[in-house]
Amino acid sequence: MNAFLKDIKTFPLGGVHPQEYKLSADIPTEKLALPKMVSIPISQHIGVPAKPVVNARDKVKVGQVIAKNEGFVSTNIHASVSGMVTKIDRVLDSTGYKRDAIIIRVDGDEWLPEIDQTDEIKREISVESDEIVKKIAEAGIVGLGGATFPSHVKLAIPKGKKADCLIINGVECEPYLTSDHRIMLEKTEEVLVGTQILMKALKVEQCWIGIEINKADAIAALKKMCVQYPGIQVQPLKVHYPQGGEKQLIKAVLNREVPAGGLPIDVGVVVQNVGTAFAVYEAIQKNKPLIERVVTVTGKSVLKPSNLWVRIGTPVQELIDFVGGLPEDTGKIISGGPMMGKALNDTEIPVAKGTSGILIIPSEEAHRKPMKVCIRCSQCVGVCPMGLEPYLLMTLTQKELYERLEEDQVLNCIECGSCAYTCPSDRPILDYIRLGKKTVLSIIKERNNKK
Amino acid sequence: MSSQLLTVSPSPHIHQQQQTVSNLMFGVVIALTPAFIVSLVVFGVGAIKVTLAGVFFCMLFEYLISKYLLKKEANLADGSAIITGILLAFNLPANLPIWIIAIGSLVAIGLGKMAFGGLGNNPFNPAMVGRVFLLISFPVPMTSWPVAMESQWRLADGVTGATPMEIFKEGLEAGLPISEIMGQLPSYFTLFLGGQGGCIGEVSGLALFLGFLYMLYKKIITWHIPVSLLATVFALTGLFWMINPAQYADPVFQVITGGLLLGAFYMATDYVTSPMTSKGMLIYGVGIGVFTVVIRLWGSYPEGISFAILIMNGFVPLINKYVKPRRFGEVKPA
Amino acid sequence: MSEVVIYTIISLTGLGLIAAAILYFVATKFKVFEDPRIDQVEEALPLTNCGGCGHPGCRAFAEACVKADDLSDLHCPVGGNDTMQKVASILGMEVEERDKYVAVVRCAGSLEYRQKTSIYEGAPSCAVAASLYGGDTGCSYGCLYLGDCVKSCDFEAMYLDPVTGLPVVIEDKCVACNACVTSCPKDIMELWPQGRKNRKIFVACINEDKGGTAKKACEVACTGCSKCEKECKYDAITIENYLAYIDPEKCKLCRKCVDVCGSHSIHEINFPPRKLKEDAEEAGARGKREKRSAAASTDTAVLEAPPAENVDVVEMAKARRLKSREAKENNENNESE
Q: Which of the residues B9, B47, B230, B281 could staple to B224 if both were Cys, CB 3.0 to 4.6 A apart?
């Protein structure tokens, strides 16, 4: 046990350590029963929304493409259930706005025949490198850590750049969430095969799997198994938020620093989530597109914290019912982790590809404390993992000084929330920074359009 | 669900529980307790009287000014007025008349803090503003120190004496050789433990140091300002001492006597008036150190830390503007 | 002694002369030619630097005026026609009279008419709330009640009504600088021609949801029922995305549409009060509570049944909530056992 604790790494700049509360870490995944109705949003990823290719009253089977990608930075959406499309309508999703979604009434569970539904592990990789990326794009795979960036875009390395290694992100630095943890434990080999497929697609020889040491069992399991997979190593990491951020993870594992405004590929690295590695395995070896994912349903007041395999499009309410219903004193429901997740205002919101967890927060913890004046204690500057000055960015946003915001590198903010988490005056620092970032982005876009 | 509405707010949805503004402020108060106890032993009732008066008047003026001049809710619970009061009192002699303390508090809170809009907006350390104002306006009572360990239980008109720094400076002006002046002083060890005369708070270096460790442990402050400040003073005075030991005191004496430790640990580290980045803090600490040494060695006042802090306070906005933290992914100039 | 005085006088005079020479040289060498008319035009402007003209401040506007060939694209909304006339006479140009505009609030969904569906607890800014979600009521188009428009107004022409929660424009003070329009993330604020005798009629709703959904979220939402469109003789009303819009250029202020609107989403401003039963309706539209309830019963009759396709989702939601409650109760029972 102590052998692997010797070589623990982490990133040097900033960061916080919120209490972990990994309540569901030891609970095996279960399959959630099929819902009666699913609503599958056509925009579950970063980029252009997919374009529906089915109409109302069409019969669909599990795995069938129901919305086609529109352009390169976009991805396919598949039917996660079999049944009849009732309509394409605007449905409230986790963005908090109503957006187009395909609503399917579930009827049986009929899969496309080419999908291999067995649990048998297929280790042989028979697909060629270019073919892999194409198949990943077809399978609608996106970054399952929460950013939902289409994976095939990440795997297509721009001209002039070269990747020399892959990092698999098993950090799961958000408190409460355990879905990646369970995948690493239960689908250890599949994750490793998926990783090999990704390495083949990228034509790299080396891969690190970064895992925080609060998941000792997952580290042990992967360490034991990965000797059979050449090139793959497990890197234990200190528990340190936001280590799951790509840039922080690369810094921690390889001590390479992605230049400001750059991408991981600029330092020769591609980062993929463990869940994504598993989805890649299923897509390539089993022909199964991304139609379900593990969702952690948890919270201090939840009767039965669980890790569930959920079909995309299932209403959150179904998940809550499974864990024993919504507790009486619920104050907040969060899609994702407590540091970066989105608060939901309705339980009918469907689970999307990026939903890593449903976190239920009792009302006494759901409220923010009233904001007080800034005492300039500089804690926010100390914890910012990007070396920014959050207090300043907040003030500049409030004063609408967007040029100075840009100068002070507001665009580098990764929105991890460490500043607002730490602020002793309970100031909504990140709320404003996010707004400032958005405004500066649109100003830059306008400026570029003019040119 | 139907009975209770869900709360929606942007992330993050959790918040650390350990540090709130009042927690931080009361942490400083706790850190100051050992120094207060020592001063109680050394100066007796006078110390209690002056400290209580300082705290009382600071809170009173904060309340009155915010309620009647700024017309907003007075926020005494954050504890900042208490700290200003304690720190002001710690910089005063234990036999100072109460009316002078009241004036000092009014200047500290009114001019030093509320005139700029209250907590968080003042460019200058309020306690320092108050103290310097008193030092310039009432030089005689401000520099008539009760002799340590002699006048504990008398309320007024005790025997007054000089601080080690004063003894030293006056001795030099009188043309006495260094060794003779040093002979008049207690040993360094006694000085460090609490044998020196002077302001309430600056008696015992050890007690101040304990408080500093506590604040470091509680993560109320970082090491940057005190360490850079003390190191600068030590290095600069050491340099002059090596050049001419007959003219200048040795660096150990310079560091442990006078208000330097109090200033370095508690005054210079004031959140509002110190820089925001660690690099900036180092510059700030070095700046205070340099000014302190300059004033001590060549100025007309024996003590320089208060002035040095106020001078560097003026530079803080400039430091904040030009000294940025190390950005992640900064492209290094090739 | 006197030598010292003389030397001092000579040296200081010399210094002064040298400095003067340098200053003169620099002033002539680096002189920037500036059209003197810019100063004149600037003086004629209101100097509020509000940016309502689209230029960053009055100086920039003055420069633009002097540079321009004609003033047709330039207008100072604060100073209005008088100011532009002055500017035109300085520059020896012609300027057309323009209508005066004022800002109107195109949302009537006050706290009373809209059910809260969640509690917003982020930073007190509409922009922050809007980038987070649709808002704390069922209507994702409506006012967020956080007053970014009020904060943006440099002329103290707006305030938040504590009863309705909605912003109110003080027409006398509004200079149509456009600040509130750009600050509103929901695009509720709109500049409206001042109209004859300051009278205006507009649809105080921008909800583009289907009638049923809109009505469920807000009692005074426009359902796009097109009654007003049929009533209007001047083709001023168009319906698009289940929402009526009155074209102020075509509207003749006849008030017929106000009468037929079942959901009171058409507002009239600065009209003389009506008589008899119409009085009740107008009062209702303005949000006076006591008279509103009488009109409410007619509202439900007007309201169309929600479109059939909506039904299953709504009902499923209900059923699920029931189920959830049952599950919870079961769990509680299990616990007590």
A: B281
Helix axes C58-67, C80-91, angle to 10 degrees: 50
Please state whether the peptide bond connecting residue B317 to the residue before it is cis, i.e. omega within 30 degrees of 0.
no
For residue range A128-150, list pLDDT tens digits in order.
888 999 999 999 999 988 788 99
Quick one: C182 and C199 in the same domain?
no
CB-based contact C132:B10 (threshold 8 Å): yes
Between CA B28 and CA B18 the distance in angstroms is: 14
pLDDT in tens, B236-257: 999 998 988 877 888 888 888 7
State mean pLDDT over A300-305. 92
- Its domain, for residue B278, covers 168-193+202-322
Contacts with B324 from chain A: Cβ below 8 Å: 389, 408
Residue pairs between chains A and B whose CB atoms are closer than 8 Å: 161
Q: Do B126 and B207 share a domain, yes or no?
A: no
Q: Which pLDDT does position B119 carry in this prediction?
A: 86
Q: Look at residue B111 and tell me if it is in a domain.
A: yes
**How does residue A239 score in pLDDT terms, banded at 50, 70 and 90?**
very high
- Asked whether residue C234 falls in the same domain as residue C203, the answer is yes
Assess whether B176 and B288 both reside in one domain: yes
Q: Residue B334: inside a domain, yes or no?
A: no
- Pairing between β-strand C118-120 and β-strand B6-8 as defined by DSSP bridges: parallel
Residues C261, C201 within the same domain: yes
Sign, CA dihedral B85-B90-B92-B98, equals positive
Same domain for B310 and B181: yes
In a domain, B156, yes or no: no
All CATH 3.40.50.11540 domain ranges in chain A, comma separated: 2-25+116-286
Asked if residue B152 belongs to a domain, the reply is: no
pLDDT band at A210 (very low <50, low <70, confident <90, very high): very high
What does residue A342 show for φ and ψ, rounded to 5 degrees? -105, 135
| B219 and B303 together in one domain | yes
pLDDT of residue B167 exceeding 80, the answer is: no
B257 and B300 in one domain? yes
Which residue is listed with tokens 């609408």?
A400
CB < 8 Å to C144, chain A: none
A329 CB within 8 Å of a chain C CB: no
- CATH number of the domain within which C168 lies: 3.30.70.20
Q: Is residue A308 pLDDT above 90, yes or no?
A: yes
Examine residue C296 and state whether it is found in any structural domain, yes or no.
yes
* Residue-number span of the structural domain to which C273 is assigned: 195-307
Q: Do B10 and C117 touch (CB under 8 A)?
A: no
Alpha-carbon gap, residue B72 to B63, rounded angstroms: 10
Q: Which of residues 81-140 of A touch C (CB under 8 A)?
A: 86-87, 89-92, 95-98, 103
Partner residue facing A430 (CB), from B10, B14, B16: B10
Element (H, E) at A84: strand A83-92
Q: Please check whether residues B240 and B137 belong to one and the same domain.
A: no
Are A325 and C131 within 8 A, CB to CB? no
Q: What is Dmax (Cα atoms) for chain A?
A: 64
- Chain A stretch 172-201, residues whose beta carbon is closer than 8 A to a beta carbon of chain B: 175
Query: Can you read off the two tokens belonging to residue C120?
Result: 């917003």
Q: Give the pLDDT confidence score for residue C306 in this predicted structure.
A: 37
Region of residue A30 (phi > 0: left; psi between -120 and 50: alpha; otherwise: beta): beta
Which candidate from B2, B8, B10 shows the least CB-CB separation from C118?
B8
Beta-carbon pairs below 8 A across chains B and C: 30
Report how many domains make up chain C.
3
Q: Note whether residue C334 is domain-resident.
A: no
ipTM of the complex: 0.87
Nearest to A174 by CA among A355, A309, A424, A9: A355
Mean pLDDT of C253-280: 79
Contacts of A328 in chain C (CB under 8 A): 328
CATH topology of domain A2-25+116-286: Rossmann fold (3.40.50)
- pLDDT number for residue C57: 85
